[in-house]
Design goal:
Shape: elongated
Radius of gyration: 24 Å
CATH architecture of the largest domain: 2-Layer Sandwich
Oligomer: single chain
Strand content: 25-35%
Strand order of the largest sheet: 3-8-6-7
Helix content: 25-40%
Structural class: alpha+beta
Number of strands: 8
Largest sheet: 4 strands, mixed
CATH topology of the largest domain: 60s Ribosomal Protein L30, Chain: A
Distance between the termini: 33 Å
Order of helices and strands: EEEEHHEHEHEE
Length: 194
């Protein structure tokens, strides 16, 4: 029986092509403690003024500045987004934790042929939140996937290498001392290795 397209709001939706891991799959887990800093929410905007400053300095030597010069210099200033220091500190602190846990998994599973970085896997992320503050689960998941790539656990976090990704958060106010990120990666072993 072939599956059919379903239509919602005049858009035909095909059956979703979700790959199943099935038999021969392995799940490994990683644990981080502390607040997961969002990459997106912790960017900072800075002004790049060097070009405008250099131009204005040259003009100042030639003649007094006019309003036209001031406007031209202002238009030369460009904005740039940079990562927040807290986000960079989070990555620097947590990367060795992930690498250490990856090395533990590598030594346990070496006989099964597990080699990092994983070329294809799925991820389930559970965030255990110790306080009452709101958290953005999807932004935290992006931070975690970037960390996994940076630490050499997975090849990439694009749809060909890490798919699907499931993420959820739950509050544990007055129950936990630390926020916990519990990461499960599942992947299929090749038939000739298992």
């Amino acid at each position: 029986m072939s599956k059919r397209f379903q239509t919602y709001f005049s858009v035909p939706i095909p059956p979703f092509k979700e790959e199943k891991l099935g038999a021969g799959s392995i799940t490994i887990r990683f644990v981080l403690t502390g607040r997961v800093i969002s990459k997106k929410n912790n960017n900072q905007a800075i002004a790049i003024r060097k070009v405008a400053h250099d131009w204005a300095s040259k003009q100042e030597k030639l003649r007094p500045a006019t309003w036209a010069d001031v406007h031209k210099a202002i238009n030369m200033v460009k904005g740039k987004m940079i990562g927040n220091a807290a986000y960079k500190e989070f990555l620097a602190k947590q990367k060795p934790v992930i690498v250490e846990q990856m090395q533990e998994w590598s030594s346990r599973l070496i006989e099964k042929g597990v080699i990092f970085p994983l070329s294809k896997s799925t991820m389930s992320l559970r965030l255990y939140i110790k306080d009452k503050y709101r958290r953005d689960t999807l932004n935290a998941a992006q931070t975690i996937t970037d960390l996994l790539v940076d630490a050499g656990v997975i090849v990439d976090d694009d749809d060909l290498h890490l798919n699907p990704i499931h993420a959820g958060s739950a509050r544990y106010y007055d129950e936990l001392l630390h926020n916990i990120a519990f990461i499960s990666l599942s992947f299929k072993m090749s038939k000739d290795v298992v």
